[in-house]
Specification:
Layout lengths: L3 H14 L12 H10 L5 H14 L3 H5 L3 H7 L7 H17 L7 H5 L6 H10 L10 H10 L9 H12 L5 H14 L38 E2 L2 E2 H14 L5 E2 H9 L5 H17 L3 E4 L4 E4 L2
Antiparallel strand pairs: 1-2, 3-5, 4-5
């Protein structure tokens, strides 16, 4: 199949309409790309764009990042969610400094050897930072390819079909622009819900002529998420870290932490839950230290 017209249309659209982010430029810095890819995992680009300059000012080099303490990372990570990603990022930087002399690897297998880097992140770094000819598939691109080629996004066979499409369709020597264009199109037009097909720059899409397909939803069994007071434990973890982050110089008594996050004096049930569910999980992720003797919590140094 000849994709010349499709390539020309998408790349021209991207040249004129690409979103502006502090990690995007004609000569990308591989360190900046690494940071952005970690930050963008499960966090919206608009929020990361606001936090990125401040974080880069705190850790201007991968060497400085590699020497950061857990507490420094958690403080710098404020507002970006999923605090354990901050620790993995520091560990990744440390391994790059120790193993690769501070040079971010430019091959796939070496990238996959780093903490927190999977197949998507490795391919994204190679494409965006090093301009390699490689296919990249994130959730936006998966959705776009599925719709353009009329595939059932919820069919188990679609994953392998999309992988094949992705490897063949991108324009060689323009992997970076192509995949970032699809990311922008996916976030602005080809959305999971209520896609804006009329405005979408993709010239031909099989789903466009059959809008009913947009409303097909998979039959999934709901995952049971550990909760307390009808709030998921992951949110209680976040509230705890936020409290400790705002006054990180001092440890805080368990009761003070609970009073702050619960907005009331804790009872025995609250204390037992916190000791059995929240504290162990935060210790496991190397986010806090807990002194059993005096019941004091603090960010891990």
């Amino acid at each position: 199949m000849d994709y010349t017209f499709l390539h020309s249309t998408i790349l021209t659209w991207f040249d004129n309409n690409q979103k502006v982010y502090p990690w995007r430029n004609e000569a990308p810095d591989s360190y900046h790309v690494l940071l952005s890819e970690y930050m963008l995992q499960q966090t919206q680009a608009s929020r990361i764009a606001l936090k990125f300059p401040e974080f880069l000012n705190t850790f201007p080099t991968i060497e400085k990042l590699s020497n950061a303490t857990n507490a420094q990372m958690i403080i710098a990570w404020q507002g970006m969610g999923y605090n354990n990603r901050a620790i993995r990022l520091r560990d990744c930087a440390k391994q790059i400094v120790d193993t690769f002399n501070g040079n971010i690897p430019s091959n796939y297998s070496d990238l996959l050897s780093l903490p927190g880097i999977g197949t998507y992140t490795a391919s994204a770094i190679l494409s965006f930072a090093f301009k390699h000819n490689i296919s990249v598939i994130d959730i936006n691109m998966y959705r776009i390819y599925s719709r353009v080629f009329g595939l059932d996004i919820y069919d188990t066979k679609t994953k392998s079909e999309v992988k094949t499409i992705a490897e063949h369709i991108y324009p060689r020597d323009f992997s970076s622009s192509w995949h970032q264009a699809l990311m922008d199109i996916g976030s602005s037009f080809c959305k999971a819900q209520n896609p804006k097909c009329i405005l979408c720059p993709i010239p031909d899409c099989l789903y466009r002529n059959n809008p009913s397909l947009y409303h097909i939803k998979p039959t999934k069994s709901k995952k049971t998420e550990a909760s307390f007071r009808n709030i998921p434990n992951r949110l209680w973890r976040g509230k705890t870290i936020e409290f400790l982050r705002n006054d990180h110089q001092l440890g805080h008594h368990l009761n003070d932490v609970l009073h702050s996050i619960l907005k009331q004096n804790p009872n025995e049930i609250d204390i037992t839950w916190f000791k059995e569910s929240i504290i162990p999980s935060l210790i496991k992720d190397h986010l806090i230290e807990y002194n059993v003797g005096n019941n004091h919590l603090s960010l891990k140094g």
